[in-house]
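Narrative of activities, Objective 1.

The group set out to show that a structural description can be obtained from nothing but a protein's sequence at a throughput compatible with the screening campaign. Below is one input-output pair from the validation batch, recorded exactly as produced.
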Amino acid sequence: MYTKEEERELQQLTDRLLKLVEGKGKEFFSSLSKEKARELAEDLRKVIRYHDYKYYVQASPVISDYQYDKLFHALKELEEAHPDLITPDSPTQRISPAFTGEFKKVKHYAEMTSLDNTYSPEDLREWDRKVRELLNQSEVEYIVEPKFDGASVELVYENDLFVRGATRGDGIYGEDITVNLKTIRSIPLKAPFSKCGIELISVRGEVIMPKSVFKKLNEEREREGLTPFANPRNAAAGTIRLKNPAEVAKRGLDCYVYQVLYSKPKELCRDIKTQKEALTLLSDCGFKTPPIQKVCRGIEEVIETVLAAQEERESWDFEADGMVIKVNDICAWEKLGETLHHPRWAVAYKFPAKQAVTKLIDVVWQVGRTGALTPVAILEPVEVGGVVVSRATLFNPDFIKSKDIKIGDYVIVERAGETIPYIVGPVVERRTGEEKPIEVPKNCPVCGAPIVKELDEAVPRCPNINCPAQLKEHLIYWGKVLDIKGLGEATASQLLKKGLVKSIADLYYLSKIDLLKLPGWGAKKAQNLLEQIEKSKGAPFYKKLTALGIRHVGEKTAQLLAKRFKNIRELIEADFTTLSSIAGIGPITATSIKNFFKAKQNVEMINRLEEAGFKFERSSEEEMERELPKPLEGQRVVFTGELKHFTRKEAQRLVELLGANPTNSVTKKTSFVVVGENPGSKFQKAQKLGVKMLNEEEFVELLKKYSDLNPEVKEALKEKGLL
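Output recorded for this entry:
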């Protein structure tokens, strides 16, 4: 929708407008000439639409909620001062549409409005005054709930069954993400609303990613060399719109439900008269409702509650950017009504922003456990949300480039909950011309190996398997792949701490005397580990290749390489064209393999391993297996459902021995699908594409047919009592 140049200009305009409207009130906007007011209104609308698009469509905001609220509030006050400037397409009159076309568009049963914001006790008292005036009451009962910082959704239940879930979208229409929402365990698939006489109900909730889950997810992403999410809100909003529900299910999302939008029969307030009663109904029907539901008599108790919550929010396992205050009497909502933008019966109290402006002094590059280099900003110390911050993540070079961040810039730093501080962007207006670009290092700052960058990644990497920053992780992986019992995290840590291992090759030069130096080690334990290390020398060639931990080379790819190359010398000398032409190995994997062997430290380690008797070559048994007939050569086989006689891994190994290539997805090129009990979506896809299918009995007959051609297949069938 926007070009990079347009985005850069809009971000610069945003920065100028934020500076212009900071601290300005109605008097300032009233004093503007018609021409200046019109120009300012157009600029504000332009940037608000842009940020609506970044937030709602791309789920990738480039300014904080606090900054967005400032822009929106400024436009609102400007239009109030100059009513003739109000246009039908102004963001204050109608929420911007937000659809990508990737999901089906659906209409909500009731409009999902946004809330007006307050920022101080005085703002709350003024809102309370207006509410009391409209209701003609001296005091109003309110209910206070957290303002969850996630992704708002509508959930629809008909005859007690969850039939539809949608994003908020523009408040009137949303996108149907039912299949993704069904993966969230806190959303019941069946809720007993019929016991209350409700045939159909639409409720509103917030999908969030708990802070504890968010922390683990980012640790995993860093291990995999992926860009960490900036905050739990971005992670939740991005996850619910993934195309693969299975991936959504892995992300650990949660959902809090907090409002009844519509019900059939509509006269719900005849039986449920308060918001507190509505929350009780939702809780009774199996929903997770807000952990704070404080009913308050009057605004002063509300103020006391929100200020206490402001102090406690760091202890919550969910992000909240404020508290929501609602009139507790649902029947009063209709009397209070709504504006085009927000209801009059509810308001948000926004917590102070966890942002600050400070100077970026320098950038250092950290090397992670997988070799990924992460740029970290060194900042002039500044307090952000009650914590002094002197470092902030810059994620990767692409992030730095997209934000146009330079050393010497004044930058906006944001801290969300327990997440690592990050830089929202530079304050371009404060540049002097002395700022310097941030350069990616050419060599690893820890071991000096030349840095490489994979074709499909934004992250630069150190390819040296023995780099001190990543050696522990590689030692653990080496022990796991080669089944070296006793070489786990604890042992790896001890070996590194004592300086006994500075390279994986050092494992094969350890002595019993060396191991007895480790705390808690006796002769038997030392001897057992040495025997396990010696035993690993006899592992299959493909296992040894897997253990090297080359990017994109797992066990399956290693098997392809072991079939193609007799020993590691042939693999090292293979050119890019040869590697990328191997079926199942494309240009990305080929590049990764070449990068690994370009690092002289890796080749030196391999030389030392071979000198110690750890040979990277096919054994005589492997050569024999390679020469056996392959009746299923070139065929692609998919397994779905549960097999009675084999585990999935066992079945895949058997077809591999006969030359087939087991894959995980069904396509037109799939040769046949083996269908077990309780098959999944692969079964339906195979039916749709007309792919040949075998049940387990037919699969066993196929194996029997070719069992005389491969001793391992024959032996496996005998062990299972099938031959």
